[in-house]
Amino acid sequence: MGRRPVDVEKIVMDLIMSDDMNVKKTLAKKILDMAYKKGIYPSSIHELYMARGRNEYTGCTIPAMNLRSMTYDLARAVFRVAKRNNSGAFIFEIAKSEMGYTNQPPVEYTSVILAAAIKENWTGPVFIQGDHIQANAKKYAEDPQKELDALKALIADAIANGFYNIDIDTSTLVDLSKPSLKKQQYNNYIACAKLTHFIRQIQPRGIMVSVGGEIGEVGHQNSTPEDLRAFMEGFKESLRKGLVGISKISVQTGTSHGGVVLPDGTIAQVKLDFETLRTISKIARDEYGMAGAVQHGASTLPAEAFHKFPETETAEVHLATEFQNMIYDSKHFPKDLKAKMYEWLKVNAANERKEGETEEQFFYKARKKALGAFKKDIMSMPRDLRDAISAELEAKFEFLFKQLNAVNNKELVDKFVTLKRVIVRKRQDGAEVTHDGEGAD
Fold first, then answer.
1. What letter does residue 354 receive in the DSSP assignment?
2. Domain around 394
């Protein structure tokens, strides 16, 4: 009798349910090996973005999706949408903050995405991104090196686990009290250059990690072309000569993460400055060879807004909160589990409740914090409920891919993105180092 085929779903569920990091790493290696054998490669989108900077393709916006919960099920839905629409350019991402409150460290996030790719018979590159690798302004002011070292440790862990796309967010260090734009951006471009240099030192041979910078913190004042030029001038001066820099730039255009919550728990309409996106994207391409501007905090925008992103040549759009909302608010999500999570929030997120805030506002803003504590409960829901919720989100993914014109680009991706196998080995001191393996045949 032959050996029974390996069930990737059992492996990934064991990984999700385990609290032992060594167990997670062992199971992650099994999943990565399976992925490579099936022609699935964690990859960098850098070369595709460089082609965009050369205007070798236009008119599409790459969706970058933060999956905070039901990650395996939702990633499967994304791959199904991509296969139906001949899509190759889409990003799975998770922010530094989300890794904590959703209890999804890089080793788990990558493994879950790759397991979903295996289950859906995907082949080719898979783009996994560290979103908002963000500097804490207060900690940076107290001890810049200590804060940068903490970010370097996170970046090293992410890259060792297949995150070959890293969004550096040092826009928190912009100081608007300074007299000139360049001085305002000084700490931002200095820190971004140092972290970019670090990434170039540790990236696996044969892979050019895609690095993003940010000039305007989301939720604050809108970015301008002058901000971009001040940042880029300082960044280029600060980056060691000969090193490859950033491939895209995140800007502020009027959105906020999660949207602005009204007293009844609904989201206020946002007036997004699409002309800022158009102008800064063009300057980013024409003057600096980048793919263009990146829009954060977009998932709660009205449906009729999304077609404008490819029209304004926005390079990438980040989508997160609406997916979380659809899970929580689905008629298929167990009411008793939701009630239990909300009761947990009353105790464990009490310090986040602001004076004068309604209960609806509090729960809407705080409920993301319960996803990690209840991750196992959510993934233990009956399969029919998980499938029903996934189907609702699959329709949303389909809508977004089509609105962003992120369809029929698989051949474009195959043209520019090189598939590279990376082998991770342990040194005697216990540190993990990457070595390049063979490319895809």
1. P
2. 40-337+382-418
